[in-house]
Amino acid sequence: MGKNYIFKVIAGVFFGLLVSCDNSSSDQFEPSANNGGNGNTTPPPARVLEKITLNSAVQEEYTVNGTLFQKGMLRDGTTNNYYTGTVTYVDNKIAKIKFVGSLTGSTTYDFSISEDSKGNVYNATCTATAAQAINSFVSDYTFTYDATGKKISKILEKRKVAGNSAYISFTESTFTYNGDNIFKADCAKGTLTATGAPNLATAKMTVYSYQNYDAKVNPYSTLPKTFFAAWSLLRPENFYRISPNNPTSVFVQPPAPAAGVNTPMTYVYDGFNYPVSDKDQALKYVYRTL
């Protein structure tokens, strides 16, 4: 259960938000009301993802008040730790997201997010507070978009650690798309030069590939992209959550000499092409009708 779950419905905690942040609605949240491309002329009622269960145990749960998203609880990979991310709005836009773990000693992640007039996130800051000060950090993120202004092409993170005032390391994530879906995230991590620029000579690469997308509705697309974008900045295996469709395979290639890991993902759909379970009926998606 553990290894597969991190890719099936990871609850690690966040670019769903930011990789393709076309969140132009006033509250960054438009409940899904399309037919999933199945040709059905009767549209389904508007719905949002409410929870995901595995063998009847809740793995993820999302709270919406009316049509306003409030918080999401996600399992952190294969651990017994669950992070709850609570959002704060300013002028009807998500401005802050704070992720708090369920286990004593968990690192707390506090995001501040800035958006442009199109609803695209253009920068963010994460303050991570760990049980040991040496593991605390502050990361600043800058986002670059493609020519359409809708797809994130790159995210550059610069990090300060243990209360230091100077940046010392970076992570540069470059995205490749297949249509509107994120096909690959190349994440290079290394140190900065004396002038604060990424020193690519020091970088080690981890590649996250989200492969063989279906043509169905991604259940996470019923919730704010900004939320999952933030979670994906912490747990990059989740970047697929901001895509409109569902990958049927996730491959992670860590820096050499570590071996890559491929995880298949399966889906059973309802009449409107929304996933309702995996093929084994163990993993289930529960929606709330609005």
Topology, element by element:
Elements: H1 2-8, E1 47-54, E2 57-65, E3 68-75, E4 82-90, E5 93-101, E6 108-115, E7 121-129, E8 137-145, E9 152-161, E10 169-178, E11 181-191, E12 204-211, H2 225-234, E13 249-253, E14 261-264, E15 268-269, E16 275-277, E17 283-289
Antiparallel strand pairs: 1-2, 1-17, 2-3, 3-4, 4-5, 5-6, 6-7, 7-8, 8-9, 9-10, 10-11, 11-12, 12-13, 13-14, 15-16
How would you characterize this protein structure?
This is DUF4595 domain-containing protein. The protein has 290 residues and is mainly beta. It has a single domain (2-289), classed as Porin (Beta Barrel), CATH 2.40.160.150. 6% of the residues lie in helices and 44% in strands. It has helices at 2-8, 225-234; strands at 47-54, 57-65, 68-75, 82-90, 93-101, 108-115, 121-129, 137-145, 152-161, 169-178, 181-191, 204-211, 249-253, 261-264, 268-269, 275-277, 283-289. The strands form two sheets. It has a 15-stranded antiparallel sheet with strand order 14-13-12-11-10-9-8-7-6-5-4-3-2-1-17, with helices on one face. The chain starts with a helix and ends with a strand. Mean pLDDT is 87; it is low at 1-30 and 33-37.
